[in-house]
Design goal:
alpha/beta; 3 helices; 4-stranded mixed β-sheet; Nucleoside Triphosphate Pyrophosphohydrolase
């Protein structure tokens, strides 16, 4: 399903749903960041997705990382809670979702890089490489917060 992220766009469609989403900021031993290139909008992002019934937020983050990247991870902390009503995600089925996402710090626990039906590329990128690819502003915010080693979680 295709999606379009509308960010601070006065012409964006009005949200008609909200869903809990999670993402994970993961760095390897060299400080590179685990990134995917999404199949639904062709943007680079950190791995993440929607919470499913019967799982905790951290279980959802671990599952999403595994599904999208092949990497097993362990959640180690919360980076932030993102709920900007000026960021809506419009899907081609008519759903327009208001952003609501929890971003976690996580560490690698195993696995090998592999793509999925949600990720056309999976790679470790340096901060400079991330700066040179097409990343949505809301993901750039999470990346910045993940790199800052904040003493408290960000929230809106």
């Amino acid at each position: 399903m295709a999606r379009v992220d509308c960010y601070n766009d006065p012409n964006a469609p009005k949200a008609n749903s909200i869903a809990v989403a999670v993402s994970a900021f993961i760095q390897d031993d060299e400080g590179r960041i685990l990134m995917i290139r999404r199949t639904d909008n062709d943007l680079y992002a950190i791995p993440g997705g929607q919470l499913e019934l019967g799982e905790t937020l951290s279980q959802a983050a671990v599952r999403e990382v595994r599904e999208e990247t092949g990497i097993e991870c362990e959640v180690t902390g919360v980076i932030g809670l993102y709920s900007n009503p000026n960021h809506v995600i419009a899907y081609d089925d008519g759903e327009v979702r208001q952003e609501f996402s929890i971003c976690f710090h996580a560490t690698v626990a195993g696995g090998i890089l592999e793509t999925s039906n949600e990720s056309k590329e999976v790679l470790w990128m340096t901060e400079n490489e991330v700066d040179s690819v097409n990343v949505h502003p809301s993901i750039r915010l999470r990346l910045r917060h993940g790199l800052e080693s904040r003493s408290a979680a960000f929230y809106t």
